[in-house]
Amino acid sequence: MSSTNEFILNTSELTKRFGGLVAVNDVSLDVERGSIKAIIGPNGSGKTTFFNLITGALSPSSGRVYFEGQDITRYSMHQRTRQGISRSYQITNIFPYQTTFENIRLAAQGCSGARVNFLGMLKTAGSFEGFHEKVLDIATTVGLDPARL
To answer: Does residue 60 sit within a domain?
Structure first.
């Protein structure tokens, strides 16, 4: 495991146990700056749990998470968001009667120094369907200007 500047995210021997069930077992991962990675596997293989360990939604049973060379293993989800780690959820989380801009502004509201990157979008969010609703959900995450999504 390397925590040099060439890697934006590292996990080292990351493990999560729920009682006797091992959901994530000893996963080490290096994510290069500017790269795109995917977590794939069958249902129940630990993908969401692993992602929750990275984002801080869950604490690991053992192992470490590094972001830009800094150990963030014990950071809360909120602290990680302020560092630049953000996520989108499978079920969209938008306010359908608010404009696109208002949805993004609300997402960025709690972060100091957050930049809203989408101005002038005045269409109400409830007018979106399927794909475009998901795009808006991702845009609200991107509106936080994360280093990694």
So the answer is: yes
